[in-house]
Amino acid sequence: MRMKMNKPSSTYLISVRPTWADAFFLDCNPKTIELRKGNFGTSLKAGDSIVIYSTLPVGEAIGTVKVIKRESLTVDRLWQESQQGQLAKVSREQFKTYYTNQESGIGVWVSAAELLLSSDRTLQTSPELGPSLAATAANSAANTRTDDIHQRSINQWKIMNCQRDIIIAGTVAEKPHTNICRR
């Protein structure tokens, strides 16, 4: 009798514009779907970790999320599955612009967001994400950071360990995406 061996989970690095990167880490109504094009993340599987790299002007790894599932869907179906963009924190116009001339898109459902943010930076929000996200961010405990040196040290340690884990896992980072919804 053959025993099926479970493949160990992997860690991937993706780059996301700051406003959308920060949306993963809101206390209330966080972003739970990352939208992509093409063949993004074909090797992603449930249980894998994704390190979220917030692009410039932040320019740092700010946290991790766990993959629930990755699906390739028609653009219309992806819009429906993202609860009309609410789970991805995008407007209909942003969604339509991003998927112009595309028949299908990739949705990566995530959970278990863990913030690795240094304590001297606040989460960014944007009026284009709509009032619910702006209000959520304003009320979010994660949006108010204290300059606690101990906490900063812990966060820097987490980032270094996360980077070490990526190297140890021997995974190649996914190709950074092209400007999704003007991130």
Describe the structure.
With 183 residues, the chain is an alpha+beta fold. Helix content is 27%, strand content 23%. The protein is built from 5 helices and 5 strands. It has helices at residues 18-23, 75-81, 92-98, 131-139, 149-169; strands spanning 11-16, 33-36, 49-54, 60-74, 104-115. The longest helix is centred in the C-terminal third of the chain and has 21 residues, at 149-169. The protein is globular, with a radius of gyration of 17 Å. It starts with 10 loop residues before the first strand and ends in a 14-residue tail after the last helix.
List keywords for this structure.
disordered C terminus; alpha+beta; 183 residues; 5-stranded mixed beta sheet
Quote the average pLDDT.
Answer: 75
Q: Structural class of the secondary structure composition?
A: alpha+beta
Total helices: the number is: 5
Strand order of the largest sheet: 1-3-4-5-2
Please state the overall shape, judged from the principal axes of the Cα atoms. globular
**What would you report as the Rg, rounded to the nearest angstrom?**
17 Å
Major sheet description = 5 strands, mixed
Specify the helix fraction band. Answer: 25-40%
Count the E strands.
5
Compute the separation of the termini in Å. 51 Å
User: What are the segments in which pLDDT stays under 50 over at least 5 consecutive residues?
Assistant: 128-183
Strand fraction equals 15-25%
- Give me the strand/helix succession: EHEEEHHEHH
